[in-house]
Q: What sequence folds into this?
């Protein structure tokens, strides 16, 4: 709040005071009071009025600063009206009373929505666990089929599992602290687990995987890292071109470890690159080939932030795509 | 024959698992009465227990602790819950391994095998293979035949080992690729052809040109 704004707000009252004084002066002059006396009266009254306005301004300003500080330091800003110290002005008291009533209605709505979301998440999680029993049975039954049907069915089952996994991690990303455990993990373990999870897709796609220098330790949540890597492998398999190769390599980058997943697939058009991590973005490749959900990379990005993992993607259309994961060093990890 | 106790509440999974383990040469003991698990285990003395954590009306973790007290058999947890904290809890309660559903069959069998081996039930894997007049040393990476020895690359060893383990049978290209992927050699069809050619070249050098036969449309045979 600036002084200018305060003045313009008070302009009406100041004008009224001036008019009153002018009317009084006119009355006094017409009733025979000397001009000098009227001038003295004006000089006495002027500082009184000014002081009133200036103290008002100062009080209002300090109150506003106080309120702004409170709002600034609040974690949940919508609880503001509940947290302000009692006002001594009637108008302000009434105003805060109204705000509190409005606020309570909103807090109720917010907590209802949060509860509904939590319930939904819990349902998704339990559903995911339920569906795994019949899937496991299907996998076991599958084994008795002849070779080619078995491989085809295995492939389809793996696709179902990949979709389910995405749903599970989408639900988990809502409250990561419940599930995310950061521990020292071998990078090669993460890679071989991710490859194993998508084995039937990768083999059916005729992909060759080359690994380089994965014999390193990183600090991360193994399941989440495996999921992220799995999404990248699925993308590379889906958007492959002739003679597909995926190279998974690690290198030191200062104190950090950098993992790159590079493929020689069809690549992504340059103008679509800034949006690849957006939710639901499928791009030209996804639309023409079908089956894209626009969720894989979005989830990778979301989960990465919880793991303090820096994920970036470069691509050249027709040449391939390279995703880089930068694992954090231990000292920088805030959550354990 | 090694006895494996199956504690699993889903009837379809239980019966398929029983069938699978039976085919693999184990003696499966499926449990259907979950209230007397510990008594059954004490009576049957299994060599390994597959335990589903999510049993109806019974906490798998508590059950594991109870089983630990009564039987010496190693326990593999099978669960559809795959949160990290569950895994830690399972292993700290004395579980020997932890597998999440839906598991792939080869992974399950490999875990069973390795847990049994650790508990001393089964023999160590051979470090050398003998078949069709060949002697393959897996630790040294050498192949000996007709008094001569050649060195093989990692890929060639795995291909040959897979063929020698199934000597006389036809091994399909898909099975060979599968076997290589099991050993973290992630190759494609073309690379398999290249490696196969090289392997045959080395066998020819040993004076065994047509040892690996190609069965058109079916695979390879030693």
A:
């Amino acid at each position: 709040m600036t002084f200018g704004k305060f003045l313009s707000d008070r302009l009406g009252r100041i004008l009224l005071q001036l008019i009153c004084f002018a009317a009084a002066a006119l009355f006094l002059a017409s009733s025979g009071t000397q001009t000098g006396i009227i001038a003295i009266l004006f000089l006495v009254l002027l500082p009184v009025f000014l002081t009133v306005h200036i103290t008002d301004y100062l009080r209002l300003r300090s109150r506003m600063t106080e309120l702004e500080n409170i709002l600034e330091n609040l974690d949940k800003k919508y609880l503001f009206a509940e947290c302000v110290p009692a006002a001594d002005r009637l108008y302000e008291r009434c105003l805060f009373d109204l705000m509190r009533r409005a606020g309570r209605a909103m807090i109720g709505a917010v907590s209802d929505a949060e509860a509904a979301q939590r319930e939904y998440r819990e349902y998704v999680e339990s559903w995911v666990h339920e569906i795994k029993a019949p899937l496991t049975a299907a996998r076991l039954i599958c084994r008795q089929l002849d070779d080619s049907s078995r491989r085809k069915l295995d492939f389809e089952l793996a696709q179902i599992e990949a979709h389910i996994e995405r749903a599970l991690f989408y639900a988990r990303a809502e409250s990561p602290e419940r599930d995310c455990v950061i521990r020292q993990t071998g990078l090669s373990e993460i890679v071989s687990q991710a490859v194993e999870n998508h084995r039937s897709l990768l083999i059916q796609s005729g992909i060759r995987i080359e690994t380089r220098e994965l014999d390193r330790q990183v600090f991360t949540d193994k399941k989440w890292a495996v999921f992220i890597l799995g999404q990248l492998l699925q993308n590379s398999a889906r958007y492959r071109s002739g003679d597909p190769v995926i190279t998974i390599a690690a290198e030191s980058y200062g104190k950090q470890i950098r993992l790159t997943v590079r493929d020689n697939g069809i690549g992504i058009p340059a103008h679509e690159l800034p949006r690849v991590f957006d939710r639901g973005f499928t791009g030209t490749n996804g639309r023409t080939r079908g089956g894209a959900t626009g969720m894989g990379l979005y989830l990778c990005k979301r989960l990465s932030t919880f793991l303090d993992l820096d994920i970036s993607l470069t691509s050249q259309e027709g040449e391939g795509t390279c995703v880089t994961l930068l694992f954090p060093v231990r000292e920088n990890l805030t959550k354990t | 024959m090694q006895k494996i106790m199956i504690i699993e509440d889903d009837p379809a999974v239980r019966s398929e698992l029983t069938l699978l383990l039976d085919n693999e040469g184990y003696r499966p003991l499926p449990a259907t009465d979950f209230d007397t698990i510990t008594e059954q285990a004490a009576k049957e003395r299994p060599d390994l227990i597959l335990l589903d954590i999510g049993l109806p009306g019974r906490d798998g973790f508590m059950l594991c602790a109870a089983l630990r007290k009564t039987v010496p058999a190693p326990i593999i947890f099978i669960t559809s819950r795959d949160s990290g904290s569950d895994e830690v809890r399972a292993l700290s309660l004395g579980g020997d391994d932890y597998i999440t559903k839906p598991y792939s069959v080869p992974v399950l069998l490999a875990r069973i095998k390795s847990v049994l081996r650790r508990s001393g039930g089964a023999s160590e894997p051979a470090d050398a293979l003998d078949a069709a007049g060949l002697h393959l040393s897996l630790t040294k990476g050498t192949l000996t035949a007709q008094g001569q020895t050649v060195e093989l690359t990692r890929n060639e060893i795995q291909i040959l080992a897979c063929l020698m383990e199934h000597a006389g049978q036809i091994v399909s290209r898909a099975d060979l690729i599968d076997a290589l992927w099991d050993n973290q050699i992630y190759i494609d069809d073309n690379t398999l052809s290249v490696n196969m050619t090289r392997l045959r070249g080395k066998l020819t050098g040993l004076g065994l040109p047509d040892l690996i036969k190609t069965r058109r449309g079916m695979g390879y045979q030693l």
Observations:
- Chain B has two domains: 3-118, 128-221.
- Helices of chain B lie at 11-23, 37-44, 60-70, 84-92, 105-118, 154-165, 173-182, 189-205.
- Chain B touches chain A through 34 residues (CB under 8 Å).
